[in-house]
Task: inverse folding
């Protein structure tokens, strides 16, 4: 396999984008990535687009071709493929792009992610998202994602004694970071009291424990590492690209507050990169709910089970901590247009390794990691990146 | 890149499968492919699942994980990815599996395709399928797939003078073949009069010019060619795997009765395989409507534009003709569960090259080709296969 590097990134603002359509969002991110890489669109050989539910949110399937067309890339008839694994759809698109270049099949490949969630009513959004769970054994009984993650949180609290303050600190930290990210949906800091006093959604999760419904898009361009300096002075090398699957239903897991697919994908990633946990300078994890960040830190092996709450409270995962987590603001504050999230995480790590992260820059960041989750953990995609 | 071979195939019956669920269909095809390859499920490294619109048809997304789980493959936490490009979703899943093995990322990879279309009303099915076209510039104005292909047919007839009998002969031929395929939805022969007297759907297309709404699934297992003989005495080599994109809207094309993405993907496939048109012994093309088979034969370069109707009438594309087309019965008679079709085409070619096609066997078949179309031709996937 050939070594692969990221040579360009592009992001739209995340939020309620009433005046921008699904396709316009994705094309905006793609064009920014093309400009960032200093490419002509004609140099792109293949495209992957991560999207969870265009069929439900905007009544549109066939999304790879749609985006290639509106980006002006259909004139060269490049291949364009949509990938889907619920909220991990973007991570999958990136992984397919890496595989495509690694194989020698193509040289310059763009991976984009997009979701437009605010064009339908809240009930429709909630039901579409429930399509990420098992429709026949979960969704049909009325279970929604806040309630699934609430069950994970209750199980976790029962086993490990996480406090309300520790859980709330995840949101406080991620809002602190999001306030420093120009594309974030929520660019304001919050306090522990704001989280603790927010509306109860699914006990113990309150409104400020939950990531929002968002519109947005993200894009990344990869090429063989040996060609990267044709396009950029600051290529970022892909050190590992891994993915793992678990049961789609939460109730079928051996342990509902441990995400085994995160353990599997993470272990494979460290093996592939030949690195240890202590080598990672920062990590973007999938904090669709505050409890998910706690589990992710532990299941990736950065600490033992039951320790992440205390570490969060002590500032270990803060922007100036030993292991900054979700410097972008995470899904909680940056926003969570589900198909776009996995690639936004990659964009954040690339900005950090380039030293381009502005007010949220982690000093001396050399190696970063991403963890992107589908559903309650039935799909997990992890990537490790290094400065070159 | 490593050479890749097909070592196992599996198909469900195609039709209205009232007593089999979406996931059961896909698992049935997968298990048959695993048995055909003489594998243990534990030997499978990665999975791709082609599906167009689980979100609309069965309210289910996150389909890669769902199928891996119900196939018992989540216990090993293998990666599983859904691909989507409307009716070309299956072809894409197969192409990703080929790329994955070619890259050296994995060794034994399964590609499946599935659609369950009969669980919703006819109106919902038609609207979900319209998600393969441009929702904002086609679907919103009430255009459906029969009407889009009818416009292509009218343009073709205007330019080339195709007769009603020539068009009907596509359906007659494919029903002749389907009557010899045990999994086909319509296992009976029809006459020209049956086609000509069937209900008008969208002038000039009648009911018997249209492929049906179907349930069904298909699966194929690939591995490196050098390992293929560990599993089977009759591996089939993948000689080319290509894909091309065009504008999603029909009205944006330079010529609405020529599918440029077929020309592009086909040319790339012949170049990749180092073969000429005359080397192909049989081909499975995407006859979602009879006119689509006419265009496919021409756009793949097997004859000049305007000649395929006459060739069809003369028996050139019949089971005992010079170039048998759609020996499976095609989408028309075998059925068209959209996500499954691209991989069913691969299964048909593999059966033919193995000499396992029973009453529809093409004598001495050495090299076969598939062409799988998304929408009105915004995505085309082509593959060429050879006996080893």
Result:
């Amino acid at each position: 396999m050939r070594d692969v590097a990221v040579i360009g990134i592009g992001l739209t603002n995340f939020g309620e984008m009433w005046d921008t359509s699904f396709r316009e969002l994705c094309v905006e991110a793609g064009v920014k990535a093309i400009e960032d890489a200093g490419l002509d669109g004609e140099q792109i050989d293949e495209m992957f687009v991560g999207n969870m539910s265009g069929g439900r949110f905007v009544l549109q399937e066939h999304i790879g071709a749609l985006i290639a067309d509106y980006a002006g890339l259909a004139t060269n008839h490049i291949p364009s493929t949509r990938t889907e694994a619920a909220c991990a759809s973007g991570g999958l698109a990136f992984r397919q792009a890496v595989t495509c270049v690694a194989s020698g099949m193509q040289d310059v490949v763009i991976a984009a992610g997009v979701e437009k969630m605010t064009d339908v009513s809240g009930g429709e959004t909630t039901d579409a998202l429930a399509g990420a769970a098992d429709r026949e054994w979960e969704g049909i009984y009325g279970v929604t994602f806040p309630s699934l993650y609430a069950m994970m949180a209750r199980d976790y609290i029962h086993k490990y004694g996480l406090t309300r303050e520790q859980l709330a600190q995840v949101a406080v930290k991620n809002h602190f970071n999001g306030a420093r990210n120009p594309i974030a949906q929520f660019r304001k800091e919050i306090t522990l009291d704001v989280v603790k006093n927010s509306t109860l959604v699914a006990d113990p999760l309150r409104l400020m424990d939950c990531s929002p419904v968002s519109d947005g898009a993200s894009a990344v361009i990869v090429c063989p590492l040996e060609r990267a300096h044709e396009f950029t002075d600051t290529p970022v090398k892909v050190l590992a690209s891994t993915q793992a699957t678990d049961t789609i239903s939460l109730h079928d897991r051996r342990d509902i507050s441990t995400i085994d697919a995160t353990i599997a994908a993470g272990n494979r990633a460290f093996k592939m990169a030949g690195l240890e946990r202590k080598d990672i300078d920062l990590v973007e994890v999938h904090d669709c709910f505050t409890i998910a960040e706690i589990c992710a830190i532990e299941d990736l092996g950065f600490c033992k089970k039951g320790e992440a709450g205390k570490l969060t409270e002590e500032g270990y995962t803060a922007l100036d901590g030993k292991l900054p987590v979700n410097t972008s603001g995470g899904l909680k504050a940056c926003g969570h247009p589900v198909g776009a999230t996995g690639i936004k995480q990659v964009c954040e790590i690339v900005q950090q390794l380039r030293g381009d992260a502005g007010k949220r820059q982690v000093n001396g960041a050399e190696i970063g990691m991403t963890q992107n989750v589908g559903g309650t953990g039935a799909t997990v995609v992890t990537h490790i990146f290094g400065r070159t």
About this structure: Chain A touches chain B through 67 residues (CB under 8 Å). The first helix of chain A runs from residue 22 to 36. Residues 4-121+214-236 of chain A form a domain with the Peroxisomal Thiolase; Chain A, domain 1 fold (CATH 3.40.47.10). The first strand of chain A starts at residue 4 and ends at 11.
